[in-house]
Specification:
The structure holds 2 protein chains of 2 kinds. By secondary structure, chain A is α/β, with parallel strands linked by helices. Helix content of chain A is 36%, strand content 14%. In chain A, the strands form 6 sheets. In chain A, strands 6-14-13-12-9-7-8 form a 7-stranded mixed β-sheet, with helices on both faces. In chain A, strands 4-5-17 form a 3-stranded mixed β-sheet. In chain A, helix 15 packs parallel to helix 17 and helix 16 crosses helix 17. Chain A is globular and about 65 Å long. Chain B is built from 2 helices and no strands. The longest helix of chain B is centred in the last third of the chain and has 52 residues. By secondary structure, chain B is mainly alpha-helical. Classes of the chains: A alpha/beta, B mainly alpha.
């Protein structure tokens, strides 16, 4: 994954120097044919505006002046504020130079030791626990590429105890973790027999707190298990289509505000198995730089051409759209059969929210289709919990394909696709997942039904509205406090996913372990999920967290931040009572 | 006195921890740490020895060079005037 240049704290995406000018060397008839026979949006009088064949730029989003403006420091510069009904504030603070240099140095040292260990394993000085071919097969075509797993063998294995920790209870706001210990440097693990009780859970995608084993959701699921059993033993096409599935699909369609919906047993499979049914050869998929692996896999499986635009950057997207319409398919220059823009609601590694009003304006202008993956944003954003469309106050009918998962806010598993009735009926016959995959088990379906009715407020209680309000309060409080403490936090101010930057490789392992010592379970991420120097700890705020729990967590994060020197932010000077290392702090913060 | 020693000890162990984190030696096994530390200390010792042996000589030569430049300027000004 290439590292993205964070140009400045300014999130204005319109930083291309100079105006974009395109020469349109085509007659009116061919331009009509390019847009699939639809009326050309550019009328004939536009083409006469330039004297030397250059058509003046009619982009929706463009640099208004020819020279580059001096870089502004404020965060929320949005060029088309008329499309937004509330301020869109996000920030991605630049990596401090000293920290970047030290991070590269740390990775360099680890690489050297990695080569040394690989050398020792190759010459059998050390026992090798990685899969290798037998001696008789050494002359054949290699089965295992040693270098590809270089990073896994030599860095991931050393700090592997921070991942795959087994839980032995429900992952609510507090959880129980089975304690494990490793005697051979994380090659194997043994249970000590003890259980760490009431570990504060800052890593589960439990945005609305529906991960619980008591309450009316759990009771309804138990009743349904007693009626239907727990397995389905069939696909939707054959005997696996239950009436509870149809009830659930009608409810999902009503929740989203679309005509009809289709549900699947697995969220990853929803993306990877449905995009091939929607796009094929001769179609163009415009996908965001930081899309999830399921979207990338689905796009690749479909066989369409894929073009990537810079993360959340509308100028880049518009340029790609214009290029696609003007030049058509690569060699033949025929018009594309379909243009599909694939974006996510909340990007979980960045905590950023998609600029949906601008994407919809672009899609309408250039007649493309929009596939919105609301895995993290459904239930978590918006005054009614209906996702990013609700958050921006837009019409759900503008999004052609609304996809989401039930894993995060609903406490269940699976995914859905919502849209027009013709689309859903087409997908019922042509999607791999709908035809071949086992359908959702009844208790899971009932959990979705109960939680969705709670969120909509149709069960008569105000539990849904309370939880939505609690989540947005918790999000604002948590982000504000972390920022005040001096950490570098990425993302939009309203997103419940909070990535906190760690940068150095040793701090990834140290952070996870120190937090567990203080009874807090957190998720740390490094390469390859993030760019190599931008490793981070990702916190997921939940409506189940009370203010006291968050305060406890914040205190521990503050302590660990002082201990590990993680307060890199240069916006506010940290005045924490560290061990008196003001000079070191200011030196590192530069 | 013992409090000062305690504070010094805490300070040193915190500094050692920061060194471990920044150089990523924190994740290495003990024998790798010993190897890295010995290489680092021997490089530092070599730097120290070289500067101890050669620095006075180099400094004297530098001073001589620069003083020679100034004296040369003064001589040429004197020759011009006379």
């Amino acid at each position: 994954m290439t590292s993205r240049p964070h140009t400045s704290e300014d999130t204005s995406v319109f930083q291309l120097p100079g105006a974009l000018c395109y020469r349109l060397n085509m007659t009116e008839s061919s331009s009509n044919k390019l847009l699939n026979g639809d009326a050309c949006q550019r009328s004939s009088k536009d083409k006469k505006s330039g004297k030397n064949g250059f058509v003046k730029n009619h982009c929706l989003f463009q640099q208004p002046q020819k020279y580059r403006r001096p870089r502004e420091k404020n965060h929320n510069v949005v060029r088309n504020p008329s499309l937004y009904n509330k301020p869109f504030v996000e920030s991605y603070e630049e990596t401090p130079l000293l920290v970047a240099v030290l991070t590269y140095m740390g990775y360099g040292i680890l690489t050297i030791f990695g080569y040394l260990r690989d050398f020792m394993r190759h010459w059998n000085i050390e026992k090798c626990s990685v899969a290798r071919e037998r001696d008789e097969q050494k002359d054949f075509v290699p089965l295992y590429q040693d270098f590809e797993n270089f990073y896994t063998r030599n860095l991931y294995t050393r700090i592997r105890d921070n991942w795959n920790r087994p839980l032995c209870g429900v992952p609510g706001s507090k959880m129980d973790i089975v304690e494990q210990v490793s005697h051979d440097y994380n090659r194997t693990f043994q249970n000590t027999g003890k259980i760490m009780r009431d570990v504060i859970n800052m890593g589960s995608y439990n945005y609305l707190g529906f991960a619980e084993n008591v309450g009316h959701c759990a009771d309804a699921a138990i009743q349904v298990t007693e009626k239907y059993g727990s397995g389905v033993c069939g696909t939707r096409c054959e005997m696996g289509n239950l009436d509870i599935h149809q009830e659930m699909e009608e409810l999902v369609a009503r929740f989203l505000g679309v005509e009809s919906a289709l549900t699947f047993g697995m969220g990853f499979a929803t993306n990877s198995m449905n995009i091939p049914a929607l796009a094929g050869k001769g179609c163009l998929i415009l996908s965001d730089e930081l899309n999830h692996a399921s979207l990338v896999l689905g796009a690749r499986l479909s066989g369409s051409t894929i073009r990537v635009f810079k993360h959340n950057n509308m100028v880049s997207l518009e340029k790609l759209l214009r290029d696609a319409i003007v030049h058509g398919q690569p060699r033949t220059h025929r018009p594309w059969k379909k243009l599909l823009i694939v974006v996510e609601g909340i990007y979980s590694m960045e905590g950023s929210i998609v600029r949906l009003p601008e994407v919809i304006a672009l899609k309408k202008r250039y007649k493309a289709f929009l596939y919105l993956d609301e895995a993290h944003s459904i239930g978590a954003l918006g005054p009614n919990g209906k996702g990013v469309v609700d958050y921006f106050g837009l019409d759900p009918k503008d999004v052609d394909i609304m996809m989401g998962t039930f894993t995060k806010s609903f406490g269940a598993a699976g995914g859905y696709i919502g849209g027009k009735r013709e689309l859903i009926q087409y997908l019922r016959c042509h999607s791999h997942s709908a035809v071949y995959a086992t359908s959702m088990p009844p208790p899971v379906a009932q959990q979705i039904i109960t939680s969705m009715t709670t969120i909509m407020g149709e069960d008569g209680t105000s539990l849904g509205a309370d939880r939505l309000r609690q989540l947005s309060e918790n999000t604002t409080y948590f982000r504000r406090k972390l920022r005040e403490m001096g950490f570098i936090i990425y993302g939009n101010d309203d997103s419940p996913v909070v990535p906190m930057m760690l940068y150095m490789p040793a701090k990834i392992g140290a952070f996870g372990r120190e937090m567990l010592k203080r009874n807090i379970g957190s998720v740390v991420v490094g390469f390859p999920a993030t760019p190599i120097i931008e490793s981070r700890a990702r916190f997921c705020v939940s409506a189940a967290h009370t203010r006291e729990t968050l305060d406890e967590a914040l205190k521990a994060i503050g302590e660990v931040g002082d201990l590990l020197q993680l307060k890199y932010s240069r916006h506010q000077p940290t005045v924490t009572p560290g061990l008196g290392w003001m000079s070191e702090e200011s030196y590192l913060q530069d | 006195m013992s409090q000062v020693r305690m504070a010094l000890q805490t300070q040193l162990s915190w500094l050692y921890y920061q060194y471990l984190l920044v150089t990523a030696v924190y994740v290495l096994e003990p024998w790798e740490r010993a190897l890295f530390t010995s290489v680092l200390l021997s490089a530092a010792a070599m730097v120290g020895y070289t500067s101890y042996v050669f620095l006075p000589v180099h400094l004297r030569l530098v001073l001589h060079f620069f003083s020679g430049v100034f004296d040369g300027q003064a001589e040429s000004a004197v020759t011009l005037m006379s």
